[in-house]
């Protein structure tokens, strides 16, 4: 029995208790069909004595309560949780997933644009209001931000301009249908310039990271080597690994690359690596990583244990910059 059905039962019992035991007249079947509408409009008293008036009123009240609550039962079964479309538990869970990902993965130097409700959720996950650009209907666009949280509300507001003018690349995606939330990278020079720069960046990554994959100082499983050869690793991460392999005496033992957001666009690279080794070697690698400057300093480094051995996790933040492997301008 559901809570609402239990309310129906209790309401009916409460009203029934109001009827005196001796007030209920004996049942007599009518000789002709009754007009039920007459009772609803205050009629029906002509055929009964005044003594019947009390139990009729109580019974009618009970029927009214049962009807209202039964209607609520029906509505609750059609609309679970009485939530509006796009505002149910699934939508809330998706918003929390997206906000948690942004808080953990996106650079704190990046401005994030979002609709008012999503901005509140992001603040709840630790993003300061000064890092958020609130998008309002008819207001400014997201072009002054670096990352856009595209909820259904934002997609309706900007329509095709979202990808055609502002943010062509998805760096993470959560949920599906009307509850889907895409985390998009803003293209400051426009989508065409972004796609061109991305193509160049992928080719440069393939060239340089293939060399890294074949280095004798790099120990890696087949999958990680394939990812290097395909240019799927963030340029900052590949540069750091190359520096470790070149400047430190121990080999760089790669367990796996990771931190590619779910549902990403083609070409978006992997931004983290897990390295294995003994404690002393991992501490040397950790010191090296933390000594890097500017774009090449990881956002997160941590020594931990995984699978019964010590590992070092190194992560760069999103979005990944393009053109780091390009030759310097003369």
Summarize the structure.
The protein is built from eleven helices and ten strands. The protein is an alpha/beta fold and about 325 residues long.
Tell me what the structure shows.
It is built from eleven helices and ten strands. β4 and β5 form a beta hairpin. It has three domains: 3-82; 89-188; 192-315, no CATH class. The longest helix has 26 residues, at 53-78. The protein has 330 residues and is an alpha/beta fold. The protein is globular and about 60 Å long. Helices cover 43% and strands 15% of the residues.
Low-confidence spans: 1-86
What is the rounded Rg? 33 Å
Tally of helical segments = 11
Largest sheet: 5 strands, mixed
Number of strands: 10
Mean pLDDT: 79
Biggest sheet strand line-up: 2-1-3-5-4
Strand coverage percent: 5-15%
Order of secondary-structure elements = HHHHEHEEHHEEHEHHEEHEE
Percentage of residues assigned to helices = 40-55%
- Structural domains: how many: 3
CA-CA gap between termini: 78 Å
Return the structural class: alpha/beta
Large-scale geometry = globular
Topology:
Layout: H1 3-17, H2 36-40, H3 53-78, H4 89-105, E1 112-114, H5 116-124, E2 132-134, E3 147-150, H6 152-158, H7 161-166, E4 169-174, E5 181-185, H8 191-213, E6 218-219, H9 222-229, H10 235-247, E7 252-258, E8 272-276, H11 279-290, E9 300-306, E10 309-315
Parallel strand pairs: 1-2, 1-3, 6-7
Antiparallel strand pairs: 3-5, 4-5, 7-8, 8-10, 9-10
Helix pairs in contact: 1-3, 8-9, 8-10
